[in-house]
């Protein structure tokens, strides 16, 4: 396997010298992106994202629960990622492994730190009862860059979600569910954009082969107001200052294009 990886890396490096990639894309090209929403009937919100041959399905469930003790006036977000074994020979049955846990954390951080959801509007009884949002990501096909596909799927699913309105009876302490529905209070659209460093070259949206030979990976999540809400560096390696500046500038541009596709998908609902 090490010999094959070395041969593959030499081939990819040779292509990059000519500013070519193994799948024919340019260095800054994102693979074809398809976003569908409302694909799970039983979920409050859902989205299926295809990024090249990578495919993820995201479901949103909303329940009632207690707030965190240190955040009594805010709703709760919980993000989980499941690697379906059929999606990749590297995935195994069983509880989430370290890769799934890290992916869930980065997706969650991009949404949480951007304050994409107004958590104060999820409070029903301060300090006692709030809405709890579960973001469940299922990886169906793995052909690289799961982080961007999952992050895009998560925010698209949140934007598509509709939840029943509720009323709280203070005398009986009962929650009454109404027949009216409302959207989740999503106020921003954070978009992750990932870069692989292979040799001395950065490529956007790395595919599976590129991820197998990359020296480092950098993911930058930005919102439509120009703020960076999350940065994730993984796979070792180091990035020069000019490489980081290039990545930030490119992340803004690519995120804007992706954001428009999400909004188009939501309009089709």
Quick recap:
The chain is of the alpha+beta class and 269 residues long.
Protein traits:
elongated; 5 helices; 269 residues; 4-stranded antiparallel beta sheet; alpha+beta
Written description of the protein model:
- Helix 3 runs parallel beside helix 5.
- The chain has 269 residues and is an alpha+beta fold.
- The chain has 5 helices and 12 strands.
- It is 30% helix and 34% strand.
- The protein is elongated and about 70 Å long.
Shape: elongated
Radius of gyration: 20 Å
Helical segment count: 5
How many β-strand runs? 12
Secondary-structure element order, as H and E?
A: HEEEEHEEHEEEEHEEH
As a percent range, the share of helical residues equals: 25-40%
Biggest sheet architecture:
6 strands, mixed
Percent of sequence in beta strands? 25-35%
Measure the end-to-end span. 46 Å
User: Which whole number gives the mean pLDDT?
Assistant: 93
The chain-level structural class is alpha+beta
Low-confidence stretches: none
Question: Topology of this structure?
Answer:
Elements: H1 2-17, E1 33-37, E2 45-51, E3 54-65, E4 76-83, H2 98-113, E5 123-125, E6 129-141, H3 146-160, E7 162-169, E8 174-183, E9 191-198, E10 201-204, H4 208-213, E11 216-222, E12 228-234, H5 241-267
Parallel strand pairs: 4-6
Antiparallel strand pairs: 1-2, 2-3, 3-6, 5-6, 7-8, 9-10, 9-11, 11-12
């Amino acid at each position: 396997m090490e010999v094959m990886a070395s041969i593959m890396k030499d081939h990819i490096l040779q292509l990059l010298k000519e500013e070519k990639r193994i799948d024919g894309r340019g260095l800054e090209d994102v693979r074809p992106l398809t976003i569908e929403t409302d694909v799970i009937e039983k979920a409050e919100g859902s989205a299926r994202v295809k990024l090249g041959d990578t495919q993820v399905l995201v479901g949103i469930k909303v329940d009632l629960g207690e707030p965190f003790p240190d955040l009594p006036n805010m709703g709760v977000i919980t993000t989980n990622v499941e690697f379906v074994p059929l999606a990749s020979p590297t995935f195994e049955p069983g509880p989430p492994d370290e890769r799934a846990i890290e992916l869930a954390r980065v997706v969650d951080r991009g949404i949480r730190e951007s304050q994409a959801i107004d958590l104060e509007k999820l409070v029903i009884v301060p300090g006692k009862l709030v809405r709890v949002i579960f973001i469940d990501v299922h990886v169906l096909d793995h052909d690289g860059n799961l982080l961007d596909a999952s992050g895009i799927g998560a925010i698209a699913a949140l934007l598509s979600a509709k939840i029943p309105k509720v009323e709280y009876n203070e005398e009986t302490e009962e929650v009454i569910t109404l027949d009216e529905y409302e959207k989740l209070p999503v106020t921003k659209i954070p978009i992750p954009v990932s870069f692989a460093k292979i040799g001395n070259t950065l490529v956007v949206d790395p595919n599976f082969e590129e991820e197998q030979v990359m020296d480092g990976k950098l993911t930058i999540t930005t919102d439509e107001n120009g703020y960076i809400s999350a940065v994730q560096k993984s796979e070792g390696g180091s990035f020069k200052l000019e490489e980081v500046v290039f990545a930030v500038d490119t992340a803004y541009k690519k995120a804007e294009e992706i954001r428009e596709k999400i909004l188009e998908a939501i309009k089709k609902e």
